[in-house]
Amino acid sequence: MMDRRKITVPVLLVFLCTRGFALGASDTGGDSQTVRDQPVTLRVSAWDVAANPAIELIARSFETKNPGIKIDLIDIPSADYTNKLGIMLNGRTDLDVFWIKDGDAGHSYAQRGRLLELNGYIRRDGIDLADYNGLADHFTFDGSVMALPARMDYYVLFYNKDMFDAAGLPYPSNTMTWDEFETAAGILTRGSGAEKYYGAHFHTWQACVQNWALADGIHTILDRDYAFFKPYYEMVLRMQNRDESVMDYASLLTGNIHYSSAFLAGRVGMMPMGTWLMMTVVEKIKSGESSIRWGVAALPHGPGIPPGYTVGSVTPMAISSVSAKQDAAWEFLRFAAGPEGAALYAATGGIPAHSGSSLLEEIAALEGMPEGLLEALTVRRISLDRPIQAKVMEVNQALDEIHRRIMLNEISLEEGLATMGARSRDIQDRQSISP
């Protein structure tokens, strides 16, 4: 689900060399001579490579540093990726390394024996998992590290400066509450029909209601009672049905309206969305496709949730348990998910999972990024939107189905929340079938 600008990789390679990123002999450390005795080609899967410049940049930079290893990128459309990856892994396809688009799928892959345990490589090469700020813990099952986090994204608030200026309102702060958000959206809304300006925009994902409650770091979608969702559904339904300060859910579905096009058209005042959108906005402005004057603030917070708390996701990488080239695969994985890959992610506006205090500063300093971005990105806590646990994918699908019915006003909020709890309990109490 990541939107990325298309960047020519050779141009970026030259840019990085001028920034001091050496692309010569390998400095990955450890004894990797065995994987360079004969030329090796690794089959590596990713999604929407043209729209995710860091992927190809990482692959080609790795090849430059490791001339005995070639990377054959398998490019799969985003909408098909999780399904096709599961099919490839279950069919024992010739696949060596892969990005996991939906991090919560990692638990299922591990349960089915599709992932290679990484503990031995991590010990051998002295990888410090603390550099992942706790994110690696999510992919450690029964003491076995089965994947390493490569990048991360989290929700922030995008806003339209022109609409705020026209309404005489101050720009959103990094301590904005959802009550303040709702009030501002009402003031920003004006016009009607094709000339209407909406004060805010919520995309159709269930995350764009439920995540605001999950930001407390206490609740998860695996809870069995979803009363904690209620204040956020009430807010969004008020804005949709009563105030009409957001486009209604049905229109978004029937019009197949993408959140980026809604915001870039300049007729949306505020939109909570993931950090992956930042580079898309930069590129669309640079190409002349949008003239929006934009800013980014921290995600608004609800009662009992401190400012700077948000929700995000992690994109991990793993090695196939049946890969015949595991040593070479590990070399690529630790490059992509390590400090070298982190620097390349940052150079293309992506937020790496591997820590680096200066990387957020580099992202905020990229050409076209808005003023104040560093402060907005410097959050206090990031909770996962979907915990990496058993049954989470089934529960998530059930919640999405009920979310749709609530937003279409097919069922009442009370009935919807009760149904969510019943479905979740049924799924979680159902005995699992062994793979």
Question: How would you describe this structure to a colleague?
Answer:
The protein is an alpha/beta fold. It is built from 18 helices and 12 strands. It has helices at 9-18, 53-65, 78-90, 105-111, 119-125, 161-167, 178-188, 207-214, 230-242, 249-254, 259-264, 278-286, 326-336, 339-347, 359-364, 373-377, 392-407, 413-429; strands at residues 40-47, 69-76, 97-99, 140-141, 144-145, 148-160, 198-200, 268-274, 294-298, 309-319, 351-352, 381-384. The strands form 2 sheets. Strands 1, 2, 3, 6, 7, 8, 9, 10, 11 and 12 form a 10-stranded mixed β-sheet that branches. Helix 1 (9-18) packs across helix 2, helix 2 crosses helix 14 and helix 17 (392-407) packs antiparallel against helix 18 (413-429). The chain starts with 8 loop residues before the first helix and ends in a 6-residue tail after the last helix. Mean pLDDT is 90; it is low at 1-36.
Overall mean confidence score, pLDDT: 90
Span between termini: 28 Å
Radius of gyration: 22 Å
Question: What portion of residues belong to β-strands?
Answer: 15-25%
> Roughly what percent helix?
40-55%
Number of helices: 18
Class of secondary structure makeup: alpha/beta
Low-pLDDT segments? 1-36
Query: What sort of overall outline do the alpha carbons produce when their principal axes are compared?
Result: globular
- Largest pleated sheet: 10 strands, mixed
**Helix-strand topology string:** HEHEHEHHEEEHHEHHHHEHEEHHEHHEHH
Strand count:
12
